Amino acid sequence: MATGRRARARAAMPKASDTLWDLAIAEVEKRENPDDDDDVKPGEVWEKSILFMGNKNGGKTTIILRCLEREEPPKPTLALEYTFGRRARRHNTPKDVAHFWELGGGTSLVELIRIPITSHNIRSFAVVLVLDLSKPNELWTTMESLLQVTRNHVNKILTKLEKTNPEVAAEIKQRMWNNLQRDHPDSALVDPFPIPLVIIGSKYDIFQFTSKSEALLLKARALINPLAFGYDKSKSVSVDPSKPLFIPAGLDSMSQIGPPPASDSDLGKIRANTPLELWKKVFEKTFPPKSFCDLQDTKDPAQDSQYAEYEVDVMRAQKNQELEQYKRNASKSWKEMDFDSD
């Protein structure tokens, strides 16, 4: 049985030339011929998936390329893009597969998260949220919008799993609580994200007098590698606000963070039910947020030169001309029509 699963895993392994449609077809075939998705045995191939999302032009592609150790310039992401990496956990073992999905367009295409996050991979799925620190007026709105839609989608999957496979649903929920110690002072305030989540504040290096982007990218890779390839989690912790923060889940608390930077009189005027809500109101007073509509990406990707295809573009131009001619003829016919008056 194990040998059969390995054979199928090899057959389903993606190729670099695979398009999004190839992957969609493979996913349908997998659902029509489901395998036994029990825990992977020693010597078998692990498959994990990660979805990167966040601000547009926030550095998501750069982080993915560094995690995969690819030396190539990042390109703008259109809609939802996919790549993968393979790496062995130890010497003389099969290479595990990590599926990397990247959501482009900031918050404008968030509904596309339904494509990579499914009931079939939810046990091995993780999310990396990349927030651009150089755009504080977009930061909180982007975070809330993306995380809320993702949480709702994952919760719908878990609700269905509770009916079809309650043990797996319970395991996923319990696993997220395991990151928090039982005696953690904030346990009553915490509502864990339903799947592993890493939040990265990108472009921190622009606030430094000397560039430290390489060292920061290495720290980001240290956070992502355990999610992608099952490496041991980093035990490094940095809570010094004068330096880049590096805080694994469950190793911080509201008492350590302290109150937001505002006077006691100002804090007394703010009505908030939780510490997070208090922080949000103080943050947004300092950095007035852009509205959700302002964050929508309205640029037509069909006009982007990087996706130019001569034959397609010629046909599109011809159809546009035909459409304009149809509009003119229809308008002329409408004006010439006689209407009987009652």
The Rg value, from CA coordinates, equals 24 Å
Quick one: how many beta strands? 5
Helix content: 40-55%
What's the tally of helices?
10
Strand ordering within the main sheet: 2-3-1-4-5
**Sequence of secondary-structure elements:** HHEHEEEHHEHHHHH
- Spans of at least 5 consecutive residues whose pLDDT stays below 50 are 1-12, 32-38
Overall SS class: alpha/beta
Strand content: 5-15%
Shape designation:
globular
Sketch the major β-sheet: 5 strands, mixed
What's the rounded overall pLDDT mean?
80
Quaternary state reads single chain
Separation of termini? 81 Å
What report would you give on this structure?
This protein is 40% helix and 12% strand. It has a five-stranded mixed β-sheet, with helices on both faces. A hairpin with a 6-residue loop joins strand 2 and strand 3. The longest helix is centred in the middle third of the chain and has 29 residues. The N terminus is likely disordered.
Please specify the SSE layout and strand pairing.
Elements: H1 2-11, H2 20-32, E1 47-54, H3 60-67, E2 80-88, E3 95-103, E4 125-132, H4 136-164, H5 166-177, E5 197-202, H6 213-229, H7 254-257, H8 264-269, H9 275-286, H10 310-336
Parallel strand pairs: 1-3, 1-4, 4-5
Antiparallel strand pairs: 2-3
Helix pairs in contact: 4-5
Labels describing this entry:
globular; 342 residues; five-stranded mixed beta sheet
